[in-house]
Amino acid sequence: MKTSVNVVTPNGNVYDNDADIVSAKTESGEIGVLPRHVPLVAPLVTSAVRVKNEGAEDSISVSGGFLEVRPDQVTILAETAELPADIDVDRAQKAKERAENRLNQDDEEIDQKRAQQALLRAEIRLKVAERK
Ligand code: ATP
């Protein structure tokens, strides 16, 4: 028994596979989804989704969106999603530095929460890119 996994963004389909287990991070915490899981919908947080299938593991960086679980299917509707091979490491490194600089400037004009989110996206992309 497998569950099928589908990751989609507004730009299109990013990933399709069968899985023994899918791990994702929702606003209420980390979740491991096995086949026949009870249906649920949960908001996703910026994180690495991991898909284990036949001993192989794929990692996908995701930001925003929702996780929808049905007994035989996991759908991830994300604002952004990238596989390791799609990640531009230099771009993520620069985004990380920009966000860190913003966070280090003690300026009220700067939206700290937005900078924190940008930093997290960059950090997750760099982590997932290592799995190329
Ligand atoms: P940047 O400041 O570099 O644009 P960001 O975190 O603000 O980074 P997002 O708004 O999350 O970027 O994403 C915009 C689009 O660019 C999405 O389609 C996303 O998949 C893609 N993207 C962002 N960063 C990278 C990256 N390092 N490598 C590949 N694609 C990326």
Automatic annotation (TrEMBL):
GO terms for cellular component: plasma membrane; proton-transporting ATP synthase complex. InterPro entries: ATP_F1_dsu/esu_C_sf, ATP_synth_F1_dsu/esu, ATP_synth_F1_dsu/esu_N, ATP_synth_F1_esu_C, ATPsynth_dsu/esu_N. It is a peripheral membrane protein. SUPFAM superfamilies: Epsilon subunit of F1F0-ATP synthase C-terminal domain (SSF46604), Epsilon subunit of F1F0-ATP synthase N-terminal domain (SSF51344). Residues 4-81 form the ATP synthase F1 complex delta/epsilon subunit N-terminal domain. Belongs to the ATPase epsilon chain family. Produces ATP from ADP in the presence of a proton gradient across the membrane. This is ATP synthase epsilon chain. It comes from Salicibibacter cibarius. The gene is atpC.
